[in-house]
Design goal:
The structure holds 3 protein chains of 3 kinds. Helix content of chain A is about 80%, strand content about 0%. Chain A is mostly helical. In chain C, helix 6 runs parallel beside helix 8. Classes of the chains: A mainly alpha, B mainly alpha, C mainly alpha. The interface between A and B is medium-sized, with 37 and 28 residues.
């Protein structure tokens, strides 16, 4: 059943991703000031949005784990965090490449860049903590708590560095600018469409990772059984 | 608008796809590893019975 | 009320045992002084430069020292399974955590008060011009470090790579607090006029403390009880 869902989503996501790549490379108009490089943005922003969805899912799943103490939520949390980290990496690296051309530097200690890097480190720490604990219940509990702490810290950091210096372009999507059309509607639509494609991909990654977590638990169970039978 | 502008666009798109592909490959490798472990264990338990 | 009394008892116990052996005070103190010395070799700072990053430098030292102190906080209870006894005692997880955090705070604050004059001598600055405000800011920053640090000490106490894992998890999460306390210390240290965004950083620091103290007190029971 799960496999069929994953395959079905894949059958939708892959053509959409390829079609988007084609549209992004050949059909959308060039941006006036930046030239072709701006096309990176069609991956940069949607990847960030997918990562943010992942971080949020991880937070909700972690809270749910502490409430319900069900290993299922722990598996969701780790799957969401890992997927989010992959997409956040896309966000960071594409941003750096864009910055090299537009700003002339790979990295600026701009609030949003700093924030993205810090949250990446925080959630990477989450994965490190998981790998260091062997007992499943202990691991689930401690990492759920860490995930909640991490989310809180990441939220505060967002506010903290807003007061710092800024260099990053402001919001462009009309839902963030209060209806003011800052970019061509075609460009904006393309961002949403590619967000959808990447989100589908993210969901696929998450489902695969989730199943692996379940298989891992089955393996652990069988190991214990095999040892007990000896 | 120099030459690098368009080159870097290709780098950017390549990295976006490349990183996601890399993660997919890592997932695939883990999948294979887990399946192998599961099979070995099941066979072991089967033999013991 | 019982909770606070239990917390006070735990804090007193920790401090007493620390002052008997003095193992983490001595090592942390000498470590901090060595780091201060090393920084002066690394940067060879002029007075203007110190005015610019003195607070950051000082807090780097305190953050390193803090990681050493909080690392010992729960690790101290590992021999003879003291930690299980503490958890089984009538003191709740929250008061156990709070007591340990207070003990760490006192130790760390003491070390900071010793480091401050040493820093003043090494780097040739008159740091006492707004002493009380500076001490207040130091106390706020130290509480952030001690509170989150002690919580993470409880989180990582059973790990093999505890000494490595704790700072790796702790520092990224402390960034908002460290950022604001560095900004504030920088200004107060050199007695410059207060910048207009002063209150923003202060509010951020206080908000961070309130938020994380609440979170850790609330979640301490979950972490400690197995």
């Amino acid at each position: 059943m799960r496999t069929k869902v994953i395959l079905g989503l894949g059958a939708v996501a892959l053509p959409l991703l390829l079609r988007n790549l084609y549209v992004i490379m050949f059909l959308v108009p060039d941006e006036m000031e930046q030239g072709p490089i701006y096309r990176i943005f069609y991956y940069h922003l949607p990847a960030f949005l997918v990562a943010a969805c992942g971080y949020l899912t991880a937070l909700v799943a972690s809270v749910m784990y502490l409430v319900k103490k069900d290993q299922k939520y722990d598996a969701i949390a780790v799957a969401a965090t890992e997927t989010a980290l992959a997409f956040a990496a896309v966000n960071l690296v594409t941003g750096m490449i864009w910055g090299r051309i537009i700003w002339g530097i790979w990295w600026a200690w701009d609030p949003r860049l700093t924030w993205a890097l810090i949250s990446w480190l925080v959630y990477f720490g989450y994965l490190m903590l998981r790998s260091a604990i062997d007992d499943p219940t202990e691991r689930a509990k401690n990492s759920a708590v860490l995930s909640i702490f991490g989310s809180a810290s990441v939220a505060v950091t967002w506010k903290a560095i807003e007061w710092w210096r800024t260099q990053h372009p402001g919001p462009v999507l009309s839902i963030r600018t209060g209806g003011v059309q800052k970019i061509d509607p075609m460009m904006e639509n393309m961002i949403y469409v590619n967000f959808l494609a990447l989100l589908l991909l993210g969901v696929i990654f998450m489902l695969v990772r989730l199943r692996q977590e379940e298989v891992q638990r089955e393996i652990d169970g069988l190991r214990r059984y095999a040892h007990a039978a000896n | 608008m120099d030459e690098r502008n368009i080159t870097y666009m290709f780098y950017g798109l390549a990295v976006a796809w490349g990183l996601l592909a890399l993660y997919a490959v890592l997932l695939g490798l883990r999948e294979r590893d887990l399946t192998k472990q599961l099979d070995t264990l099941k066979r072991m338990i089967e033999e013991k019975k | 009320m019982t909770m606070l009394r239990h917390a006070a008892a735990i804090a007193a116990k920790d401090l007493r045992s620390e002052f008997r052996t003095k193992e983490s005070i001595n090592s942390t103190l000498s470590f901090s002084v060595v780091i201060l010395l090393l920084f002066s070799f690394a940067f060879d700072p002029s007075p203007d430069m110190i005015a610019e990053f003195g607070g950051g430098l000082l807090w780097m030292v305190f953050a390193f020292a803090g990681a050493l102190i909080v690392n010992r906080s729960f690790a101290r209870e590992l021999p003879n399974d003291c930690i299980d006894v503490l958890v089984a005692s009538p003191a709740s997880g929250a008061s156990l955590f709070l007591g340990k955090a207070v003990a760490c705070f006192v130790l760390l604050f003491g070390i900071e008060c010793i480091c401050l004059p040493v820093f003043g001598i090494f780097y040739n600055i008159t740091w006492w011009r707004s002493l009380w405000a500076l001490l207040g800011v130091l106390a706020l920053g130290t509480w952030a470090l001690a509170c989150v640090g002690t919580f993470f000490s409880a989180l990582t106490v059973n790990l093999r790579l505890r000494e490595l894992m704790l700072p790796m998890l702790l520092y990224p999460m402390l960034i908002p607090a460290l950022l604001s306390v560095m900004m504030l210390t920088n200004t107060l240290l050199t007695g410059q006029a207060l910048p207009p965004d002063f209150s923003v950083w202060l509010r951020l620091l206080v908000g961070f403390n309130i938020m994380f103290t609440t979170l850790s007190v609330y979640l301490a029971e979950t972490i400690l009880v197995r």
